[in-house]
Known about the structure:
Active site: 110
Structural class: alpha/beta
Pfam family, one: Pan_kinase
Pathway: Cofactor biosynthesis; coenzyme A biosynthesis; CoA from (R)-pantothenate: step 1/5
Shape: globular
Order of helices and strands: EEEHEHEHEEEHHEHEH
GO molecular function: ATP binding; metal ion binding; pantothenate kinase activity
Mean pLDDT: 93
Number of domains: 2
Largest sheet: 5 strands, mixed
Number of strands: 10
CATH topology of the largest domain: Nucleotidyltransferase, domain 5
Subcellular location: Cytoplasm
Strand content: 15-25%
Oligomer: single chain
Amino acid sequence: MLLAIDAGNTNVVFAIYDGDRQRGIWRTATDPKRTSDEYMVWLTHLMALKGLKPVDIHGAIIASVVPGATFNLKRLCKDHFGCEPVIVGQPGVDLGAKALVDRPEEVGADRLVNTVAAAATYKTPLIVIDFGTATTFDVVDADGNYCGGVIAPGLNLSLEALQMAASKLPRVEIQPPAEVIGKNTIACMQSGIFWGYVGLIEGLVARIRAEYGEPMRVVATGGLAVLFAKATHVIEHTDNELTLRGLLLIHKRNTVQ
């Protein structure tokens, strides 16, 4: 079985695959100080609830955008699961896609993994929107290569910044308000955050399509993908398994059969 690890700025996601079948998926808050032993205690307990044991794991792959967490995740794979993990972005790891940008080494591992999965699943060219700590818009060309994109502040990050800067504004739930014109502070904030973000999505997608010069499908992933897909016609597909599926594909490509 394969242990796939996606370490983002907010959460680390662990998934176990038996072939193409996902046997379990779990999340924990990203903490660079968490040791490999701490991960193991937490993870083995959750695995046991699914009838899984550490000896079932025969391979591992890691995509991480948090260098401080990568070391302990590698130790987890080596010391506790007895396997050398494939690390997305390291020399020698074949993605099957190129990063056609000024500095390929600076592209986040998650964006590369999403590119691989999106190109294998949907007709290219594509725009992949990932609603994470940051909201990224990634362009996948007709050949399945990553060729740039946009990084915008994530929705929760924007909301936190607003609350920190304006002491009288309350914390609000992210949800579409019934009307754009708010009649109270909470409704005004919800409208600005939600519909303002819809405007950002639609505006950036339109500009990317115009600059690229060809029709492009739009795929969204991340926790808020479904919420925004209901509010705008530009998001054609939602796919919350995109990153993990990309890790599965990359591991297969880099494993001697």
